[in-house]
Design goal:
The complex is a heterodimer of chains A (about 220) and B (about 525). With about 220 residues, chain A is of the alpha/beta class. Chain A contains eight helices and ten strands.
Chain lengths: ~220, ~525
């Protein structure tokens, strides 16, 4: 059974279709790259899979649980427990230090685990920087914080939306390595939205979102 | 199969997915989130948050202080009135004119009467230390009869000296009268118009001591001396009656054969009379202080709205990471309630302090000189707890209401859209006609006559004018923008900053909102982390 099973997904804004007839399956521990032109709806698809945006048609199941029929509150609780997110723009809370930012999912779950946070800090190469504030870190380091935050609660699925889009080539490679390594080590599935063919080449499988659906 | 080093989880298959209820958190979570998520963010807006806190604190303090001052002053006045009038069960008066002394004998002989105390009242003049004449209230009484009913009117320490009590050549002064006279005066010359002849006459009496009567200058002397001074020989104003223990005054009155030409009634409740007299003043003051609290709530609303607007992307991130809409709203509401709780607590303390200071400066009678020498400063009593709870709850309610709109905005925002920097409407736009309508309604309400003796229309007018003024602000801003746009070389301030927005609705005011949102998003959206 697939970890993520999406079928017949369609989304439109008014009369403009964003995507139609999208079918997608992800196995546990699998890393899939999602390519597509700008405006093709990759991020929207990611939002719909995460239950952040409403679909016009189709079904999404995460480990057998039907997301599309859940209420907004149930979808949020599902994200809290089972999904991890990495964004292009890092999105860290500026008033929390690095360790607290990484611990955010655990705080939402009310399952504090300082040892796990230290473990993640070490895993992403930020050992000893837990007390620093985000403004004291570089872009590459901030994205490492985001990766650690996405994985700290051991989610089933990590959704990464162009995680290297704001980084130079050297840092982008390092961050991508880290994301892939950590995701695989934890056994989480990962759907990686990217423009980069090089990044996509590191994935287990590549999909391209076009007007005809996922190819 | 690859082992999972971090979690020890096998990758053979997906682990079972717990239901959403598995990650529901209890109330303790909100406290933890307030402490770990809200507090660090609010600390960075300490100035604004303190200003809002101050608004609640001052509003509650003012309302509570006014209430304490009013209740204390009323209680003191009631106590002072009781001191002067004594505490008889019934007061016997003539239906017309004055009582005669033979009525006194009849009244004292009525079955069931324990004490019958004759009283004569009038006004005399004396000369103060500067040689100026001033008025004194004169009370003539039979010390033996009036003692149990009005002990405050007897000269202090005189109860051991029966002769002094009954000597018509002696008098006692209260504190206010003594303060006007030269110190260590042994005698006092009183000047009064004799009722029988209409001629002014002087009478010099020995000062026997001081009585504890509160209020304006007053002398107490034996009723015979008072009759001479006032030229009312053989006359009485009233007879205070104390009935035997166990007798109900109303029942006694229904069956008693009162002397001809007299009527008896319970003593007037002067405290209640003052309450009626000062009701308008007290209600006005109370409403004005509540208006201050209400105005403060707008400041709280503005501060919370701005705070939320600045943290919108952060709150959206929490939403993406799994904080439900209700939890986000509760977090914002919790911040408002926490501010309200703190503001109310501080406001109650400050209100107590202000009232205490006011009483020390003005006296318990607020300078009306009805109860000089009355205790100053507030005494804590459990009777004050309901009022403290009421005003504390009012501060909490006002803060909660002020936080409700930002909380609702946070609850309804599309988190993914906000996180992408596409913004969100914080509050629905008010219709343009609402502000002017409220202002006109305020003017109309101000013209309404009082209802139940209170200017309820005026209060509603104040509220309406306040709300109308606030509702007119967007209208005035739009007008100002248009005027600025007419100036040569001056770009449209709204349009210049807002620029085109994806999905822009082109509504009037959208530019202004975007103009606000842009710098907010730029500076605070991601804590400056966005490249």
């Amino acid at each position: 059974m697939s970890l993520l099973h999406a079928s017949g997904l369609a989304k439109r804004y008014g009369s403009t279709p964003v995507f139609e007839g999208v079918d997608l399956q992800l196995q546990a521990g699998e890393l899939v790259a999602l390519l597509g032109e700008s405006g093709s709806g990759k991020s929207t698809l990611l939002n719909c899979l995460a239950g952040l945006d409403e679909l016009d048609a189709g079904r999404v199941q995460l480990n057998g649980a039907e997301i599309t029929t859940m209420s907004e509150g149930q979808r949020a609780l599902l994200r809290r427990a089972h999904l991890g997110f990495v964004f292009q723009a890092f999105h860290v809370l500026p008033h929390l230090n690095v360790a607290d930012n990484i611990a955010l999912p655990l705080l939402l779950l009310q399952k504090p685990d300082p040892a796990r946070v230290q473990e993640m800090l070490a895993a992403v190469g930020l050992d000893g920087l837990g007390a620093r504030m985000p403004r004291q870190l570089s872009g590459g380091q901030l994205q490492r914080v985001a990766i650690a935050r996405a994985l700290v609660h051991r989610p089933l699925l990590v959704l990464a939306d162009e995680p290297t889009g704001n980084l130079d080539a050297r840092h982008a490679g390092a961050v991508l390595d880290l994301l892939l390594t950590q995701t695989r080590e934890q056994g989480s599935a990962c759907l990686l939205v990217t423009h980069s063919e090089r990044a996509a080449a590191r994935a287990d499988r590549c999909l391209r979102l076009t007007e005809q659906g996922l190819q | 199969m690859k082992p999972d080093r971090a979690s020890g989880r096998s990758q053979a298959g997906p682990r079972p997915l717990g239901g959403p209820d598995d990650v529901l958190v209890g109330r303790g979570a909100y406290i933890s989130w307030l402490r770990k998520l809200s507090w660090p963010a609010l600390k960075h807006q300490a100035g604004r948050q303190l200003l809002a806190l101050l608004a609640i604190t001052l509003g509650v303090a003012l309302a509570y202080a006014v209430h304490l001052l009013n209740t204390t002053a009323l209680a003191e006045f009631g106590s002072a009135a009781a001191s002067l009038n004594g505490r008889p069960d019934l007061v016997l008066r003539a239906k017309a004119g004055a009582l005669t002394e033979d009525v006194y004998a009849q009244a004292a002989a009525l079955p069931g009467v324990l004490i019958a105390a004759p009283v004569l009242e009038g006004v005399a003049q004396a000369t103060d230390t500067k040689g100026q004449r001033f008025n004194l209230r004169v009370i003539g009484l039979d010390a033996l009869q009036s003692g149990p009913l009005s002990p405050e009117l007897l000269a202090q320490g005189s109860t051991s000296n029966l002769q002094r009590l009954l000597d018509p050549q002696q008098l006692s002064l209260n504190e206010a009268a003594q303060a006007r006279l030269p110190p260590a005066s042994q005698t006092l010359t009183l000047r009064a118009a004799a009722a029988d002849s209409g001629q002014a006459q002087n009478l010099t009496l020995q000062i026997a001591g001081r009585n504890a009567a509160p209020g304006s200058p007053l002398v107490v002397l034996d009723i015979a001396g008072a009759q001479v001074l006032l030229g009312r020989l053989g006359q009485l104003d009233r007879i205070d009656l104390r009935l035997q223990t166990g007798l109900d005054p109303a029942q006694w009155l229904a069956s008693a054969q009162l002397p001809a030409g007299t009527r008896a009634a319970p003593p007037p409740d002067e405290g209640a009379r003052l309450q009626d007299l000062t009701r308008a003043y007290r209600v006005n003051l109370g409403v004005l202080s509540l208006m201050a609290l209400f105005t403060g709530s707008f400041l709280v609303f503005a501060v919370l709205s701005l705070s939320v607007a600045q943290r919108l992307p952060q709150l959206a991130l929490l939403g993406v990471l799994g904080m439900t809409a209700r939890e986000r709203a509760s977090l914002v509401l919790g911040e408002g309630l926490l501010m309200g709780m703190l503001g109310s607590a501080l406001g109650l303390l400050l209100g107590w302090g202000l009232a205490s200071l006011g009483l020390q400066l003005l006296g318990a009678d607020l300078g009306l000189a009805v109860a000089p020498g009355a205790r100053t400063g507030l005494q804590f009593s459990t009777v004050q707890l309901p009022a403290a709870a009421f005003f504390g709850a009012l501060g909490l309610l006002v803060s909660g209401l002020a936080a409700a709109a930002p909380a609702l905005a946070v609850q309804r925002m599309p988190v993914a859209q906000v996180l992408k920097g596409l913004g969100s409407e914080m509050h629905p736009a008010l219709p343009a006609w609402l502000g002017p309508l409220l202002l006109f309604a305020g003017l109309a309400l101000a013209l309404l006559p009082p209802l139940w003796g209170m200017p309820l229309g005026a209060y509603a007018a104040m509220l309406s004018l306040l709300l109308g003024g606030i509702a007119c602000v967007p209208l005035l801003l739009r007008g100002a923008h248009r005027l600025l746009a007419l100036l040569p070389g001056c770009p449209d301030p709204a349009g210049a900053r807002a620029g085109p927005r994806p999905g822009g609705r082109g509504r009037p005011g959208a530019g202004r909102r975007a103009g606000l949102a842009k710098p907010v998003g730029g500076h605070a959206g991601d804590g400056g982390q966005l490249p």
